[in-house]
Amino acid sequence: METLESELTCPICLELFEDPLLLPCAHSLCFNCAHRILVSHCSTSKPLESISAFQCPTCRYVITLNQRGLEGLKRNVTLQNIIDRFQKASISSPNSPTESRRLQTQRPYTMDLRISCQFCEQDPPREAVKTCVTCEVSYCDRCLRATHPNKKPFTSHRLVEPVPDTHIRGLTCLEHENEKVNMYCLVDDQLICALCKLVGRHREHQVSSLTERFDKLKQTLENNLTNLVKRNSELENQMAKLIQICQQVEVNTAMHEAKLVEECDELVEIIRQRKQIIAVKIKESKVMKLRKLAQQIANCRQCLERSSALITQAEQSLKENDHARFLQSARNVAERVAMATASSQVLIPDVNLNEAFDNFALDFSREKKILEGLDYLTAPNPPAIREELCTASHDTITVHWTSDDEFSVTSYELQYTIYTGQTNFISLYNSADSWMIVPNIKQNHYTVHGLQSGTRYIFFVKAINQAGSRNSEPARLKTNSQPFKLDPKTAHKKLRLSNDCLTMEKDESSLKKSHTPERFSGTGSYGAAGNVFIDSGCHYWEVLLGASTWYAVGVAYKSAPKNEWSGKNSSSWVFSRCNNNFLVRHDGKEMLVEASLQLRRLESPYLTGMKTCH
């Protein structure tokens, strides 16, 4: 139905043909559309009858008119009959595709809107049940039966579900007030009418039907809307994560605040307990020292009393003037005084100044500094890899880094992997399977061994403490290429190596080389191996062939036989030239390949193992 409808559509108004004219070029055109074309070509000073020709809008064929003008053209009766039958089928069957699209665009406006009959004379008018697209009027059931009997020409009118008057009448052209817009200019991106395309400034522009443009723009809008909805969903998810993080911040902050109070209370309790313990120790020391001093005072008092009594007795003896009596009484006193004088150091106790308790000190300066330095621990600042200080060999890289928060770092962790060109480092970092990790590094540098030669790696350094860790920015470092030369210890006796062991050529006179297990020894196979054995990685080299027409270049295991052609066994692979034939060979199997006879340079990328030349 949609294909048939497009065949019955006028190229000017893009509606079904109405009173179609049959043009001499076999195309058709609505009578009114043809009349509008003539009007557009007619100036104000010339009458319409003066127009004697116009172009077919489909094929640009010039249509010549006789004196009768448009009336002189034949009516396309057959086409009109087809249109009539098509319209009847459209009325009795579901809406045509075009009408369905029209109704889809109109339905959102009419779901909750009451459309009134525009033909009713009563007030208020009854609700409309149909809208005639041809009449551009909405009718109630009674008015519809009265105005649209089942007879011609009303049977050709298109009836649809009620729609507002503004939607059924459509938009008018900005340049031609009486014309409806019925096509879309793709150049100026605006709605135009048929006259704009025929005689206006859009004549040479590419245009599209409203339906086609509607479908395309709707699809574009739906796609963009889908993307926008998807982005909004992602933003909502992101916002939900941020809100969750905010909530987690609140929870963690409350937890840390409670922990702070708890830890400080414990410190205060420890200080209180230590204060009590030290106070008890001070009191105990005081009691012990005072008891000891009291005993010393009592001893001193006792000695003083004895000494005072002896002094009194001696003074009484000195008052005796009678010599005989003095000698009799003073001898005993003199002995006692002499004994007391001799033992005075024993009788008088030593006084120790330390017993005064002045050698006791309370020094909490160290503890005060520790308390003043109390703070919550955070993850250390990210370290910075110093690429200008990093060094590399063919299988090692020494990574250097610095940290402005070194005192809070407990250890470092080095992570590295082969750089594949991926720029999304977050995604690359999260793919943990491909990373090598070196933990518990105490210095600001580390040397990684066992790397592939000529390979770029990406490195991260993580600074760690009890509070967490932070990563450095990524650094891309590359190992040096593996130097390669031919090994003279493996070269056949009839081969001569020169140019610092980079050039090989046949030399029948060079036969003084001793035989070794590493040396090629075949009678028809003159070869030499490289001095580097490669067990992994991607590698590339070039061989300049000169004018040789018989050679083989390839790779082999170190254990490959040295007494036969490479490629004749399962341990070697070669590209070979035998006069004018080029082939690849492995395990005795050969396959011819196409190559130029002027081949002078052979490139061999991405092969692993031992390089050999014959």
Automatic annotation (TrEMBL):
Residues 464-614 form the B30.2/SPRY domain. Residues 218-252 form a coiled coil. It comes from Nothobranchius furzeri. GO terms for cellular component: microtubule. This is Midline 2. Belongs to the TRIM/RBCC family. Pfam families: ANCHR-like_BBOX, COS, fn3, SPRY, zf-B_box, zf-RING_UBOX. The keyword Cytoplasm applies. GO terms for biological process: protein localization to microtubule.
